[in-house]
Amino acid sequence: MAESQTTDLQKLADSEYKYGFVTDIEADAAPPGLNEDVVRLISAKKNEPEWLLEFRLKALRRFFEMLESEGEPTWAKIDHPSIDYQNIIYYSAPKRKTIDSLDEVDPELLRTYEKLGISLTEQKRLQGIAVDAVFDSVSVATTFKAELEKHGIIFCSFSEAVERCPEIVRKYLGSVVPYSDNLFATLNSAVFSDGSFAYIPKGVRCPMELSTYFRINAAKTGQFERTLVIAEEGAYVSYLEGCTAPMRDENQLHAAVVELVAAGDDATIKYSTVQNWYPGDKNGVGGIYNFVTKRGACRGKRSKISWTQVETGSAITWKYPSCLLIGDDSVGEFYSVAMTNNRQQADTGTKMIHIGSNTRSTIVSKGISAGHGQQSYRGLVRMGPRARGARNHSQCDSLLLGDKCGAHTFPYLEVRNASATVEHEATTSKIGEDQLFYCRQRGISEEDAVSMIVNGFCKEVLRELPMEFAVEAQNLLGLSLEGSVG
Amino acid sequence: MLQIKDLHARAGDAEILKGIDLSVRAGEVHAIMGPNGSGKSTVANVLAGRPGVEVTRGSVRFEGEDLLAFAPEERARMGIFLAFQYPVEIPGIANSYFLKAALNAIRSHRGEEELDAMDFLAVVREKMKLVEMDERFMSRSVNEGFSGGEKKRNEILQMAVLEPRLAILDETDSGLDIDALRTVAYGVNSLRSPDRSMIVITHYQRLLDYIVPDFVHVLADGRIVRSGGKELALELEEKGYSWIAGETEALAPEAVAP
């Protein structure tokens, strides 16, 4: 009985990973290998100040030390061959550099973005979204810079920020994710290529959503973005990050670091991600390794950081967007939908570290496993000794499609203050054949039914996404399901 | 409208239907009664096309078409509706969203224009009065947290909105108290029409006091062993299913074998 049910689900239309194509642009690339020379090359290419080069070199040395003594972290429920760090290219840039107007962008690049469905044109302008596009390590175009500048908002590539406001970068870089935090963050700190930077001054509410798109193009290039978002007292910003990648046979490493700082009282940062890296083919060959360190610090009182993510791609995902709730009454939120299909593996979750009093955190994690996908939710809620009256509510739900996939939950709750409250709920369910049949008996096709049920399952999370992204996310969920649901 | 001929069906290794013959014309209401395990729900499942039930012999023609050749959603769009015995819950999907999607799928198949949210709401409001359901139910998730009675009323509401040609009610009375039963029956009766047929599956004669059938068939061990008018149901209630079993034995001893 289970067999035919699985087969029925599997009969959903196949869909090619539609972003699998390569742009033919002459790249300026370093030879493969990880050493001091490569790091100096990267730093020189970007005209970085001495202190930043030192930061990188310190991290590089530490990286080799960590690799030597501890090796790669193995506590995650993930299976992958050891990464050969010497066989990766750490720098690759299209020949053109950052420009101010879209007219100056290489038309080939623009066509690429169009194919990806990313419009850097007037359309986006009308929708009021400032777009910064990172293409293989170099930010290509940033629209709306001038308008944002009127408000005193700085939104540009990380490299540009180092040139424009080095004191700000220096103050906050590594302040939330120290350079030796974990192996991949350390690697990133040594070889980070580029990323986005946003600074919202005191009392300013960013008038539009800030958006960035990433893409990994050249073979054997790991991408190491570094993103830094700072909101001063009373500031507000909503930031969208979206990713796609072309089809490749060799695995590609993606070790990014994102640091968010809600620096002043009442500062708010909303960070949304819709991620669709190439997941590997049906047998798990190829695909992106997505090892990311994302962390936000709520320094100010009543400050707030929300992470919202929809993850459907990537061969292996390892990320725990986290919040350090330092300021009293600060709030941390984590809303996530993660989908694993075929042979994908994901070990993801969040950490909410409550330090200040009356801090609050909310975790809503929805995991969908299909095919032979394996997904683990790993969450840490820590209530420190000073976290008087702190509260957490966690809800982790797993949905299994078919009977060859797996979902696992590892909640860690550490409470060191007697007045803190922690609530944790978890459910696991299958899309029942009864539910599917019910929908079909009412005239709804099987495909639409699965899509509906999955969307219903994820509703609480999708609701948190900025509207722009909500549509893309829903489509992505549908697209990912079409690719063989087991 | 519906012609079932020599229908044999199996679920897993068990042979459940062992030769069903049934004809239903437009406008007729047929009741199917029988003890547990007789195969009543299987008849409903075969007609609706539930996966896991295999037809091993026989045919089913619906409005001239070979019904068994169609997928469940196609059959629904052709006008077949099954009111489930145990309606399933679908969290996260609002009743209104679900029903609108269903209605539009069926309308589009019939070549009618799909309804937008406003028009749909107007249609639904009308029909909700039939089953005495509060508008608030529409924004709740499908059957989530509904009581037994509410679930059954929701089934009838959907039936009212989707306007099927053939409605199969699978033990719609199970788990209902008298008041809920009356409400459901009232809703069903309001949907009777000369171009709509119904197959009412039930254990008890009680439902048939409210939804008066034109024909009654008694199912035992995978076969229809008796057919008659509505009085047959009364006779059954008086004498019990063992009376039928007794009669069946006399007729076909091999049918009683496991």
Structural class of chain A: alpha/beta
Helix content of chain B: 25-40%
CATH topology of chain B: Rossmann fold
Low-pLDDT segments of chain B: 252-258
Order of strands side by side in the largest beta sheet of chain B?
6-9-10-3-11-12
Distance between the termini of chain B: 33 Å
Strand content of chain A: 25-35%
* Proportion of residues in extended strands of chain B: 25-35%
CATH architecture of chain B: 3-Layer(aba) Sandwich
CATH homology group of chain B:
P-loop containing nucleotide triphosphate hydrolases
Identify the CATH class of chain B.
Answer: Alpha Beta
Oligomer: heterodimer
Could you characterize the architecture of this molecule?
The complex is a heterodimer of chains A (486) and B (258). Chain A has 486 residues and is α/β, with parallel strands linked by helices. Chain A has one domain (2-482). Chain A is 26% helix and 34% strand. Chain A has helices spanning 2-10, 36-45, 50-69, 107-115, 122-127, 145-150, 158-164, 166-172, 183-191, 433-441, 446-462, 467-482; strands spanning 27-29, 92-94, 129-135, 138-142, 154-157, 196-200, 209-215, 226-231, 236-244, 252-254, 257-262, 268-276, 288-298, 304-311, 316-319, 322-325, 331-340, 345-354, 360-369, 374-383, 391-400, 406-415, 421-430. In chain A, helix 2 (36-45) runs antiparallel to helix 3 and helix 11 (446-462) runs antiparallel to helix 12. Chain A is globular. Mean pLDDT of chain A is 78; it is low at 1-16, 96-100, 122-129, 214-220 and 244-249. Chain B is an alpha/beta fold and 258 residues long. Chain B has one domain: P-loop containing nucleotide triphosphate hydrolases (Rossmann fold). Helices cover 38% and strands 28% of the residues of chain B. Chain B has helices at residues 40-48, 72-78, 95-109, 117-130, 148-162, 178-190, 206-210, 230-239, 241-251, and strands at 2-11, 14-24, 29-33, 53-62, 65-66, 80-83, 90-94, 141-142, 166-170, 197-202, 215-220, 223-228. In chain B, strand 4 and strand 5 form a beta hairpin. In chain B, helix 5 (148-162) runs parallel beside helix 6. Residues 252-258 of chain B have low confidence and may be disordered.
